[in-house]
Predict the structure.
Amino acid sequence: MYEVERRDLVEKLRKKGITDGKVLEAIMNVERHLFVPEGVRQHAYDDVALPIGWGQTISQPYTVAVMTQALEIEDEEKVLEIGTGSGYQAALLAEMGCRVFSIERNREIYDRTQKLFDELHVRAALRCSDGTLGWAEFAPYDRIIVTAGSPKIPAALKKQLKVGGKLVIPVGDKYSQSLKVLTKLSEEEFAVKDIPHFAFVPLIGKDGWKE
Ligand code: SAH
């Protein structure tokens, strides 16, 4: 279903500057309409964020594409995602061959997405907890992606990243953020690149925004 719409979306993303073939291929293969509530399904392939309940959203496809491209996925990387939400981003990473670990703080959203992953056989480990503390048990990670906006970069995430690994996180105030793309050069040193002008729902937790 929706193959034509999905192909159109991929073309639109290509025109907007997404060049990573693996990212575009995954967007062609993952059925975004299965990750959004039925009431907004007809808009699943519009390049917009959509509500998923509990005041949260599935990110705009362009935003997902920019972040995934910034991760520079090559092969079977171990990836930690903070903010599972609909599960779409996690499903894309799994489709690209990554070993995916994803944390969601909202119990209802977590339950719904876990059920969806069981039904669709998406291979990703999900957990319900505060992602600002990371997931130490499976650290270090090759890549970490945070899909909610944070006032700062949580220390645990920097620590749980492998040397040579990349961390993508929106940082700013509650209404607008820029994407920080960090490369871990050594235990203490990071190179930082900035991609401006994004807007995410807030990252709420011990090392993020207060409730
Ligand atoms: N990646 C998601 C985007 C979801 S929106 C997708 O593909 O649909 C961001 C999500 O982050 C929300 O579901 C919100 O509940 C969750 N979130 C916010 N703060 C969090 C935290 N500290 N730990 C884990 N999840 C968090």
Notes: The domain at 3-198 is CATH 3.40.50.150 (Rossmann fold). The chain has a mean pLDDT of 97.
